[in-house]
Amino acid sequence: MVDTQVTSGPVKNVNLALQGGGAHGAFVWGVLDCLLEDGRLEIEAISATSAGAMNAVVLASGMAIGGREAARNSLHDFWREVSRADLIYDFYSPFNQWIQALKLSPEYHPFHAAIHAFTHTLPPNLLNPFNYNPLRPLLLKVVDFERLNAPGQAPQLFLNATNVRTGKIKVFQTPSIKVESVLASACLPPYFQAVEVDGEHYWDGGYLGNPALFPLIYRKGARDIIVVQVTAIRREALPASAADVLHRINEISFNSSLMREMRAVAFATRLIDGGELDAGKHSRIYMHWIGDDHLMAQLGTATQFHPEWSLLCKLRDAGRQTAMTWLEKNFEQVGCSSTLDLADMFL
Question: Would the pTM of this model clear 0.70, i.e. be above it?
Answer without folding.
Answer: yes
